[in-house]
Amino acid sequence: MAESTTQKYDVIVVGSGASGGWACKRLAESGLKVALLEAGRPQSSANFSEHTPAFELKYRNLAPEIVRKTRPIQSQMGDVCNEYTQDWFVNDIEEPYTTPADKPFNWLGRLRMTGGRTNVWGRVSLRFSDWDFKAASHDGYGEDWPIGYKEIAPYYDLVEKYVGITGMAEGLEELPDGQFQPPMGLNCQESVFRDRVKQKMGRTATLTRSANLTQSLNGRGPCHYCGPCERGCVTKSYFNSAFTTVADALKSGNCTLISNAMAFKVLMDADNNRARGVLYIDRITRAPREIQARAVILCAQSQESTRILLNSANSQYPNGLANSSGVLGHYLMAHVRSAGGRGEFPELAPSPSLSAPIKPLGIYIVRFRNMKGNPPFKKFLRGYGFECDSNFDFNWGAPGFGEAYKKAIREPRAEFSLTGFGEVLPRWDNFVEIDKEVKDVYGIPVLKIHMSDGENEKAMIKDIAESAGEMLAAAGAKNIRTRANPSAPRWAAHEAGVARMGSDPKKSVLDQFQQTHDIKNLFVMDASGFTSNPCQNPTLTIMALCVRSCDHLMDEMKRSNI
Ligand SMILES: Cc1cc2nc3c(=O)[nH]c(=O)nc-3n(C[C@H](O)[C@H](O)[C@H](O)COP(=O)(O)OP(=O)(O)OC[C@H]3O[C@@H](n4cnc5c(N)ncnc54)[C@H](O)[C@@H]3O)c2cc1C
Ligand code: SF4
């Protein structure tokens, strides 16, 4: 029997990452009483280690096997889940998921800390445009989103001003400009690449729009270029919901953070077809507990929120809560990010230094396939952008030893790398379901994930490598190498679409305000609702949509519809 809290809240928000943080801030600052259920433990700057050198760690960050013992999946992103940060991540053994034997899928970036993935994210913050929201109208594949750019634009403005995004305005319809802080500037490799690729190919490479401050904002300091944002930031110079939106919500006095609370299912008042609360497991005591509210918002990350809905199946909704359409769990999308290229610009390399400032972002090449002014590309639908890194380093791999080696290692290396991020089409047969045979340590049935590359992704991967090689050559790079690997099983941590939005309740789970069509006081405000997964990184849009949906929720409450 689950113990129940007596306090009644207005809203329960599940998950404190990018979406949950904004939901709590928006609602609590407006006066609603919010309970924030977060599976992870609290985050604090005492956990941040961006200034800790590896030699201060017990294993010098050189023993990945130690991390692999408990996090064999998460540690595959070794640059973010390592000896510094491993305990921010889910224990893969205790909280597994399954896949069919022939469809491996790495579900990476599963955090268990206040702030969720925003603790370790890459911070790339790009707007979508009507080329994305109305992509189905352009090429006939899939469904349009139930909103367009003009509906979300004011919310992009609002979120960007608060988050703090450094960027350069380019005036492009396909990648709308935002409310930018001053740009961090380009280094010489980036400037040369940008100019030559524009001149010779007409493509735009811009400073990556990134959630790193260049000016103080709300008590957060500007970035001081130390580098490893994925280990935290004591000056709060990158955006992490733990020390921004969630902190603001708590400061309002209207939000209660309940940590180590693993939501199991949404509880229903069947007579009135209303969500009445959430059943969760206390991860420390393993005791089940119930909490009640007027409305429930799931923000636990796409697959996690969908898992909660599927585990909430009851006699009225036998296939999962709010799943009268049968669409819940289907149309899983991620991003292709397994292709790209690298080259060198030896003439541009400065003398290497161990204490040089490190710019925490590079440049971004804007999508150019299947855009206005060009005939449709024959090989695939939609498109991709590139995230680029410019590295100046010592020649650590120099051969030899002694005096000759000491000299060779100081030879500067200037490497420039491009990684394509490509749109994955929504397909019915990429889906998640509950694995009835397997439970996590808390007794909650786990997900089984079915996902594979389609023909469109395979053709795109090949083209990403080819165009990376062409652009590096156009920019004058030497020693060019390209790569085109299958995307699966190592998908980018940008999953979306498993409870998609749409105007037709027979073909979608959520409406344009991420309110379930079936149950009026139940919302899902993470990327589950994405109708397609444009190649731009998703989080800025997750946050903007979430604020818009919270405003709608409050309007509905005022009108007593909820
Ligand atoms: C390494 C990495 C780099 C990335 N880089 C970028 C980037 O450059 N740009 C970009 O746009 N996006 C990036 N992303 C993705 C970005 O982090 C996510 O899109 C974003 O954080 C998703 O927000 P969310 O609110 O859906 O989930 P999250 O931020 O993941 O938060 C979900 C929260 O819910 C909690 N939770 C989960 N299940 C439960 C449960 N059952 N009960 C209670 N709580 C639960 C989790 O503990 C977590 O705190 C990156 C992700 C990773 C891992
Ligand atoms: S590089 Fe900038 S944002 Fe990143 S951790 Fe260092 S100071 Fe913070």
* Count of alpha/pi helices: 11
- Most strands sheet: 7 strands, mixed
Classify the helix fraction into a percent range: 10-25%
Please trace the helix and strand order, writing H or E for each element.
EHEHHHHEEHEHEEEEHEEEEHEEEHEEH
Task: Based on Cα principal axes, name the global outline.
Answer: globular
Provide the residue-averaged pLDDT: 96
Low-confidence stretches: none
Distance between the termini: 28 Å
Q: What is the gyration radius calculated from CA atoms?
A: 23 Å
Share of β-strand residues = 15-25%
| Molecules bound to protein | flavin-adenine dinucleotide, iron/sulfur cluster
Please report the total strand number as a whole number.
18
Structure class: alpha/beta
What would you say about this model in short?
The chain is an alpha/beta fold. Helices cover 22% and strands 20% of the residues. The strands form four sheets. Strands 1, 2, 6, 7, 8, 9 and 18 form a seven-stranded mixed beta sheet that branches.
Task: Give structural notes.
Strands 1, 2, 6, 7, 8, 9 and 18 form a seven-stranded mixed beta sheet that branches. Strands 5, 10, 11, 12, 13, 14 and 17 form a seven-stranded antiparallel beta sheet that branches. Strands 3-4 form a two-stranded parallel sheet. The chain is globular, with a radius of gyration of 23 Å. A hairpin with a 5-residue loop joins strand 15 and strand 16. It is α/β, with parallel strands linked by helices and 562 residues long. It is built from eleven helices and 18 strands. The model has no long low-confidence stretch (mean pLDDT 96). The protein has helices at residues 18-29, 64-70, 130-133, 135-139, 149-163, 188-201, 245-251, 302-311, 402-409, 455-475, 539-558, and strands at 3-14, 34-37, 165-166, 180-181, 205-207, 255-258, 261-269, 274-282, 288-298, 335-336, 339-344, 363-365, 384-393, 413-423, 431-439, 445-450, 478-484, 522-524. The two termini are 28 Å apart. Helix 1 (18-29) runs parallel beside helix 7 (245-251) and helix 5 (149-163) packs across helix 11. Bound molecules: flavin-adenine dinucleotide and iron/sulfur cluster. Flavin-adenine dinucleotide (FAD) is lined by residues 14-20, 37-40, 77, 80, 109, 111-112, 116-118, 120-124, 261-263, 299-301, 304, 308, 493-494, 526-527, 537-539, 542. Iron/sulfur cluster binds next to loops.
